[in-house]
User: What shape does this take?
Amino acid sequence: MPGEVCLICGNKGDGFYKATTKAKCTICGAEIEWRDAASHYLKHTKRSGNDVVCGICGAKVKASEARAHIRSHFVVREDKRVFCGVCGREFIDVRGALVHIMKSHEWGS
Assistant: This one.
């Protein structure tokens, strides 16, 4: 997906991603905790009437769908494998990764 946010790039081991606990925001450069990553990026959205503009890809989405849209940027696909772009955990499908991102990386919301 264009605009994929991968905070684990550069931490790839032998066929897997090494977990990280802190990362830099790709938009503002702030150091962020892994458990607050998705919530931090949600702060980079801009209101436009009843919609919001994504700070990552510039897409205009309904305000009610902004969280789900931000989460989708953290799903990293590599061949048929699916990873969390925040901590590197591998999943068998995209839905599992999205649920994980919602439960593990939105503490500051």
Observations:
- The first strand starts at residue 22 and ends at 24.
- The chain has one domain: 22-104.
- Residues 22-104 form one domain.
- The chain has a mean pLDDT of 80.
